[in-house]
Amino acid sequence: MVYLDNAATTLQKPPAVYRAVISAMKRMASPGRGGHKPAMLAAETAFACRQAAAELFHLEDPECVVFTLNATHALNLAIKSVVKPGDRVVVSGYEHNAVTRPLTALGCDIQVARSPLFDREAILAEFDRLVTPQTACVVCTHVSNVFGFILPVEEISGLCARRGVPFILDASQSAGALPVHMDALDAAFICMPGHKGLYGPQGTGLLLCGRDRKTDTLLEGGTGSLSARQDMPDFLPDRLEAGTHNVPGIAGLLEGIRFIRGRGEETILRHEQALMAVAIRGLRTIPGVTLYDALRPELQAGVLSFTVADMDCEAVGEALGARDVAVRAGLHCAPYAHESAGTLRSGTVRASFSEFNTADQAKRLVAEVARLVG
Q: Is there a contact between 294 and 170 (Cβ–Cβ < 8 Å)?
């Protein structure tokens, strides 16, 4: 199978990830729940993962790295630690439902910084217009999960800092391929999955907490610390990690992060962009195919959307799947992005690339789309 649905989850992982998961299931117990060797080994692995993530994402304190189930879990923790019901919150026009649904559930006044696709200047102007000292928070994706648009988050975070507004970054599509520096962004929180660009197992995610950031809990329960108290610990990461950890997932995530650090984010991004360029060149020659690509490659990460004239995008996705080319079709849980691009009614077919894809696989996508059209 040609797997091109890496924006949902990476399927191919580094071999060390698989080995780490199996080893953890055989050798590790619950961290912080005992002084015996299996518990201590689990605790050492969990701390090693926090430390590796802190180094990759430039956090001073590994204890500010919180393990979550996924990016959605991390975003809920971040948003509900900063935003109160009815607050005014500014978001980009490319947000995932993992951002907009928690804000809607809180009854927030959501202000959307809309812009044409791949127009950095326009989106910066909109954030400049909407972000005021009365804004409770800004939440922004780093890379659109539908179109691969790389948003100017450094400039947006700088604007927030100047106006005293907390900034939350959704790094779901950027972590592992683009630099994500907590110290440079000075974000309140950075949220990401472990199972996408970090090549960890499903059921893993990270919440990176900024300095002196107060956090509110979503879950309460055992932490292995301060067990005589009936309120949650007031220190990280224990405050946000109630219950038994996903130790096999954390062990696998550690190896995924080590893989990223070994390969280098820039190398991975260049590889994904090169494969996307192969697909773009081929798809552009097929009658009836509309591509949503940036004229400047530096504006787009390894995610490419397209439509086929007179064909429902879901039908295209199903037909490609039947031919062993795995893509995703529809709205991709991101209606704001489709509103921005004018594709809300049609949706798109999305191909998303990883370090483990090849140029031949990109050419196979082109060939199968050509067969559908022909």
A: no
